[in-house]
Every structure is written in C-alpha cells, then in structure tokens.
Amino acid sequence: MDPIQRMIFERTLSLPSGGMIAAPEVLQLGQNLIHLIKAKKAIDIGTYTGSSAVAWALGMPSDSEVLTIDIYPGSYDSISSKLISDRPDIYPKIKRHVGPAAQKLDAMLASGEAEKWDFIFIDADKINYPQYYEQSVQLLRPGGVIVIDNALWGGSVVNRPGPLRDYSTAAVDETNQRASRDSRVYNYLINISDGVHVIFKKY
After folding, report:
1. Is 146 left (phi over 0), alpha (psi -120 to 50) or beta?
2. Cα-Cα-Cα-Cα dihedral sign, residues 51, 71, 30, 64
3. Which end of the chain has fewer beta carbons closer than 10 Å to its terminal beta carbon, N or C?
4. Cα–Cα distance between 185 and 146 in angstroms, integer?
5. What's the pLDDT tens digit per position in 85-124?
6. Which of 119, 117, 148 is nearest to 132 (CA)?
7. Where in this chain does the entry annotate a coiled-coil region (predicted)?
8. Mind listing the pLDDT tens digit for each residue in 22-34?
9. For residues 43, 48, 51 and 56, what is the CA-based torsion angle, rounded to 10 degrees?
10. Structural domains of the chain, ranges and CATH numbers in brackets
C-alpha cells in the first residue's frame, strides 16, 4: 500500500462515517483489474475521502484520467485534498465532479461518451445502484470492467423480499440480479469484504 493510501485510511477511520471507506482488498482487486485490462480512463462513483480515486490513479499510467463523482465534497476536502495535491504522480490524473452522479453520467452519455471508459467503480448511495449500473454498462467500452462494492450489503441481500426489507437492500439485490441476467456482460459475485460484483463487458 502506498503511503498516501495509509494516511487516507487512518484519517478516514477516525471519522464517525469511516466505515464507509472501501476495504483495502477491494481496492487491490480493482487495481489488479486495471493492470489486467490496461485501463487509462476510470470513473469513480462515490468519492467519499478519495481512497478509491487514489487507488485507481496509482494503478494507471501518467496520461490517464480518473473522474471521481460525489454530491458531498467535504470529506474529500478535509481528508485527502492536500495529500493528493502534493503528489505530482496522482494529482493530474484525478478530475472531480461535485453533484448527483446519475445526472453527470446521463450528461456524459448525451455528450457522446458511450463506450469510452475502461473501468468503473460503483460505491455510492445504494438506492441508485440499478441506475448507476445501467449507465455504467453504456459508458464502458467492450472489454472494460465494472466493480460494484457492497454487493452483499452485510448479507441482507440473501434475505427474502418482504415488508421489513429496506430500499437499499432491495436496490443492491436488484443490481446483482440485473447483472446476472444481462446478456451484454459476464459477471462474478465475489465474497470478499462486503461483497464485490465484478462485471466484464462483452466484445
């Protein structure tokens, strides 16, 4: 793990919301997939404190781009902004967008960016996972990879649908089911951390 990643993890875990950070093994898996497909354009849906954006930037060459999207800029600004700006090997690659992710992704599709992106990481508001998934498949190039974090959602996705099932659980489960039935992709749900759904777009 790079020193900047250790620092971001330590600072993030001191926050009341620190448990939202993606686990190190999830970020390492994403980096390995980035190396495998030689990704140079990544979308990071859910910036939080910037740990995932930094991981993707570290895994890609100098002429790469990581677009990281979040509606709340405060966590990134307070935890990671200065650390990242002090790293010339990372800072130029990361482009931030503050605002609703679904709107940004729709705007990207409308501007002709379909099938232009190599790698997409989804780790944001769970209730919008189904929409993020569909937008991501359209933005992803053939041979590209989507990684969805929290795909097991504390194990709650295995519970039968019923009146006590919350909206986030239902949305994560719906996303998993969509990916498993989607003829455009290959998919594999991995039982590490809180569950990781890895999706490869077919050629």
Report:
1. beta
2. negative
3. C
4. 10
5. 999 999 999 999 999 999 999 999 999 999 999 999 999 9
6. 148
7. none
8. 999 999 999 999 9
9. 0
10. 3-201 (3.40.50.150)
